[in-house]
Design brief:
The structure holds two protein chains of two kinds. By secondary structure, chain A is an alpha+beta fold. Chain A contains nine helices and 27 strands. Helix content of chain A is 25%, strand content 38%. In chain A, strands 14, 15, 16, 17, 18, 19, 20, 21 and 22 form a nine-stranded antiparallel beta sheet that branches. In chain A, strands 1-6-2-3-10-11 form a six-stranded mixed beta sheet. The termini of chain A are close together. By secondary structure, chain B is α/β, with parallel strands linked by helices. Chain B folds into two domains: 179 residues, Beta-Lactamase (2-Layer Sandwich), CATH 3.30.450; 112 residues, 2-Layer Sandwich (Transcription Regulator spoIIAA), CATH 3.30.750. In chain B, the strands form two sheets. In chain B, strands 3-2-1-6-5-4 form a six-stranded antiparallel beta sheet, sandwiched between helices. In chain B, α6 packs parallel to α7 and α7 crosses α8. Classes of the chains: A alpha+beta, B alpha/beta. The interface between A and B is large, with 38 and 38 residues.
């Protein structure tokens, strides 16, 4: 199995696709069997898809990324940008399925149907893939994961990232070779001939501050321990959202280093958490999150800092390689899902993140995207949706 | 803060490594037990059921069957842990061809895998795990099944792949050992058969030789006087002996220019109509070459048998002495 990446910053999406793809094919020594496409929303989705439809690859899975993309060559966060990740694996099989989440069926059932289409498209009817790659419009990721697990069981890794735009304004898109969407779930069923291993981490450290959700609705956290959630959170963080309490508004930037954690499991007594990123505060004292929240959930205030954000991706990459027990030369390539909130916080120092990934992956090619929600498989095997998370998925040559 | 995160991660990583190490050890011990079972089996035939039982436990299979590819390409059940799977036959398509080539596959829903339709038709089976167990002398697939859908995951296929990697050389060695044993047995059987054939041929040749001697001894041609030959017939006499006697007697009459042949029938055991006819033919042949034929020692039964034919001109005497005297007197 071979992997390669290519990127292009031309304003014309057709030219960007054409030239990036030509470079990718040169690197791979032929057309890929699976193509993962990431672009900034400054590229028109329809024009991108049209250009992708002309390529000689059937399995195309893509979505928009916040501000830009990153590869070994660096992070491109200004202007239109496009990056491609291709897997060339004649002994493997790959298929893509996509459906609009607004079509009537529940998000879980829709994701399940998209998965079945992906498996059928791979020519592996009834077979369990090594990994499911997921991209969804923000909003129903937990239900999508549940829908996938209803078909494959809980032990198949589900990894991916929610489509994003530049301003949380609903401008995100998802695409395949055949269609573009703004509200879809896109699923790839991956049957590579070599190993594929993924590491998924929150990184943040739990503090001693905690509480229980006493009122919630969907992704809106209304009360913690019987009090308005915004007020409680503001107290916990020593006034991180003080300025937004009365009028409400976006708090993404001020909460990135203090997300809310929920216990998922533990490794030998060391707990691990999935994170929920407070996105906006309402005048009624409720908080919008990028993840579902339920009454009875136990919340832990998590803490992080800039230095940790800068070095974390490299550590997750090294973990993924260690999990797969791969020497640097054995890594064909990797996909990196990096929370857009984290990226925005360290935007000016993304070169450190790229360097860490490069070192952690031993110089293997990688494509990174910036997402509004991350899905991955924790070390204990739990597939979860979270915020402010990082996943690194490593494809082995054999 | 970053230091706290690093410490937290390092602890988690350490614990994770310990857990992974324990899991690897458990799996390695389980594999070792399985390998021991198959390595000490006397033959592949006895290995198959042991292998199935072991993999059933290792991979969490509700039931399992071993299918072996026959010369027409069909996979046929060779051993099973469950009567429902007895007689199972599968036609390899892309899925089973991949499995035979060494890529295990988990099936989350049998009804969605066309190649496994015969399994989907069986009651209470929903998911399957297919593992290639091909050795140098046979192509085989393990089919593990489960009543729950999606009972198998990439973890199971990875474990199966690990087992096959370590078990394949053992199975190959067992197959080679069995092949060598079969070859030795076949060679020994061929040697024994050849020796037996040789002995049989020798016995046959001896029997033929003895038969010829017996024929000669049962009707010897004695030159008792110049121009007079005597043939004493003893025991029973069949067509072959009569033919031999006729040929030898006529030849002797010609060689000796004899004028009289005396057939002494005193020692004949059984005499029936057929014997009478045969003797009559000999007498006729002697006459045709210009010699005379006397018969002596004719008993009542033979007399009756000969009387059914033309006995005109036939010289018959009560005893050999009378016959000799008559021949010498002429």
């Amino acid at each position: 199995m071979r992997a390669a990446t290519a990127h292009h910053h031309d304003h014309d999406p057709a030219r960007a696709v054409r030239e990036a793809y030509a470079a990718l094919v040169r690197e791979l020594g032929g057309p890929p069997q699976w193509l993962f496409v990431q672009s900034s929303v400054r590229h028109d989705a329809g024009a991108l898809r049209q250009a992708l439809a002309d390529l000689d690859v059937a399995a195309v899975h893509g979505s928009s990324s916040c501000l830009g993309v990153m590869t070994r060559a660096g992070a491109t966060l200004d202007g239109p940008s496009l990056a491609l990740f291709g897997l060339r694996d004649g002994d493997g099989s790959f298929g893509v399925g996509a459906l609009s989440l607004g079509a009537g069926a529940s998000p879980g059932a829709t994701a399940g149907l998209a998965l079945e289409r992906a498996i059928d498209a791979a020519g592996r009817q009834g077979e369990v893939p090594a990994l499911v790659w997921l991209t969804a419009a923000p909003g129903h990721e937990e239900a999508c994961i549940a829908g996938l697990e209803a078909i494959l069981g809980p032990e198949v890794p589900v990894v991916g990232g929610s489509a994003a735009d530049d301003a949380v304004a609903g401008g995100w898109y998802q695409l395949t070779r055949d269609a573009t969407y703004t509200d879809a779930v896109v699923v790839s069923a991956l049957f590579p001939s070599g190993r594929v291993v993924s590491a998924f981490q929150s990184g943040y450290t739990p503090t001693a501050t905690h509480g229980v959700v006493t009122r919630a609705s969907g992704r809106t956290l209304i009360e913690i321990d019987g009090r308005p959630a915004a007020a409680v959170y503001n107290t916990w963080t020593g006034g991180a959202i003080e300025g937004s309490l009365r009028e409400g508004g976006s708090v993404l930037a001020s909460t990135t280093l203090s997300p809310l954690g929920r216990h998922v499991g533990e490794v030998g007594g060391v707990p691990y958490y999935r994170l929920a990123h407070p996105a906006a505060v309402h005048p009624d004292g409720s908080i919008d999150l990028f993840a579902d929240i339920a009454e009875g959930d136990e919340l832990v205030l998590m803490a992080g800092d800039i230095e940790a954000l800068l070095s974390r991706a490299g550590r997750v990459a090294a973990d993924a390689r260690a999990l797969a027990d791969l020497a640097p030369d054995d890594v064909a390539g990797a996909l990196v899902i990096f929370c857009a909130g984290c990226m925005l916080t360290v935007r000016d120092r993304m070169d450190r993140v790229v360097a860490g990934l490069d070192e952690g992956l031993g110089g293997a090619p990688f494509l990174g995207c910036f997402t509004f929600g991350e899905q991955g498989c924790f070390v204990g095997g739990e597939n979860r949706h979270g915020n402010l998370m990082i996943s690194v998925t490593v494809f082995a040559r054999e | 803060m970053a230091a706290d995160e690093n410490i937290h991660e390092a602890l988690a990583r350490l614990e994770q490594a310990l857990i992974a190490e324990r899991r690897h050890r458990r799996e390695a011990e389980a594999m070792l037990a399985g390998l021991r079972a198959i390595a000490t089996a006397p033959s592949l035939a006895t290995t198959d059921p042991a292998l199935l039982r072991y993999l059933q436990s290792l991979l969490g299979l509700a039931a399992a069957a071993l299918l072996v590819r026959d010369p027409d390409g069909l996979l046929r059940e060779r051993a099973t842990t469950d009567p429902r799977l007895a007689g199972l036959q599968l036609t390899p398509g892309p899925l089973l061809t991949r499995v035979l080539a060494g890529q295990p596959s988990a099936i989350f829903e049998l009804s969605r895998a066309p190649e496994l339709a015969p399994l989907a038709a069986l009651p209470d089976l929903r998911s399957a795990l297919c593992v290639g167990l091909t050795t140098t002398n046979r192509a085989a697939v393990l089919i593990g099944v489960h009543p729950e859908p999606a009972a198998f995951s990439p973890r199971h296929t990875a474990l199966a792949r690990s087992f096959v990697q370590v078990a394949a050389p053992v199975l190959d060695s067992l197959a080679a050992r069995e092949d060598a044993q079969h070859r030795r047995l076949a060679e020994a059987r061929a040697d024994a058969l050849e020796r037996s054939n040789l002995a049989l041929h020798e016995q046959l040749a001896m029997i033929v030789r003895q038969q010829a001697q017996i024929q000669q001894l049962s009707a010897p041609i004695l030159r008792v006087w110049r121009g007079v030959l005597v043939v004493p017939l003893v025991g029973s006499i069949d067509d072959e002996q009569i033919a031999s006697l006729s040929e030898r007697l006529l030849q002797a009459l010609c060689d000796d220019r004899a004028r009289v042949a005396i057939l002494d029938l005193t020692g004949l055991d059984a005499v029936d109509a057929a014997t009478g006819q045969r003797l009559h033919a000999v007498i006729g042949a002697v006459r045709l070459i210009g010699a005379r034929c006397h018969i002596t020692g004719v008993r009542p039964a033979l007399a009756a048998a000969l009387a059914e034919h033309d006995v005109r001109g036939l010289s018959s005497f009560a005893t050999l002495a009378d016959g000799l005297a008559a021949a010498l007197a002429r």
